[in-house]
Write a structure and sequence with these properties.
There is one protein chain. By secondary structure, this protein is mostly helical. It has 2 domains: 92 residues, Rna Polymerase Sigma Factor, Chain: A (Orthogonal Bundle); 84 residues, Winged helix-like DNA-binding domain superfamily/Winged helix DNA-binding domain (Arc Repressor Mutant, subunit A), CATH 1.10.10. Helix 7 crosses helix 9.
Length: 184
């Protein structure tokens, strides 16, 4: 247990109880925004330190949304300092595989190819679309929670989600059509 001298009695315990259950969600968001495991780990560590230092301003309620807001802001600060806007890192398949490899080899190969294609398409989405899609589809946040985390209106969340889904569907369709034509 972490007990800095400046933390009041019970603060660390309340912090751990409220925010540590959301560590996976924090890392997942940071990983998709930074596109790199080590950078995501650094960002999450910095975000948790910030969350602890500002924990007195947390008024209860949804700790996950509060934490993800801090993670998001920390990611954007980190990206501005460390990456030019067009820089990207390839998705790490081993890091994000589910470990649920059941079925025959052909089914596994198709499932892995589909997963890699989807991950590649997600990686190529503009950051504002990728962010809302990850928060909604992978983290299961409501539109209102996404709006709170991203600091945008609910209508903007809905619009970005619709555009992100359209882009993903179009890219998947285009790439699958190219593969079918190339395979014939």
């Amino acid at each position: 247990m972490f007990s800095p001298g400046w933390a009041g009695p019970g603060k660390v315990e309340r912090f751990e109880q409220a925010l540590l259950p959301h560590l996976d969600a924090a890392f997942n968001l940071a990983r998709w925004l930074t596109r790199n495991q080590q950078d995501a780990e650094d960002v999450v560590q910095e975000a948790y330190l910030r969350a602890l230092s500002f924990f007195d301003s947390f008024r209860g309620g949804d700790g996950r949304a509060w934490l993800l807001t801090i993670v998001r802001n920390t990611c954007y600060t980190w990206l501005r300092k460390n990456r030019p806007p067009e820089a990207s890192v390839l998705f790490d398949e081993e890091l994000h595989s589910t470990g649920e490899e059941t079925g025959n080899p052909e089914t596994l190969a198709l499932r892995n190819a589909d997963r890699r294609l989807l991950e590649q398409v997600l990686e190529e989405l503009p950051l504002e679309f990728r962010e809302v899609l990850i928060l909604r589809e992978l983290e299961g946040l409501s539109y209102q929670e996404i709006a709170s985390v991203a600091g945008i209106r609910v209508g903007t969340v809905m619009s970005r989600l619709a555009r992100a889904r359209q882009r993903v569907a179009r890219q998947l369709h285009d790439r699958s059509s190219k593969e079918q034509k190339g395979g014939l």
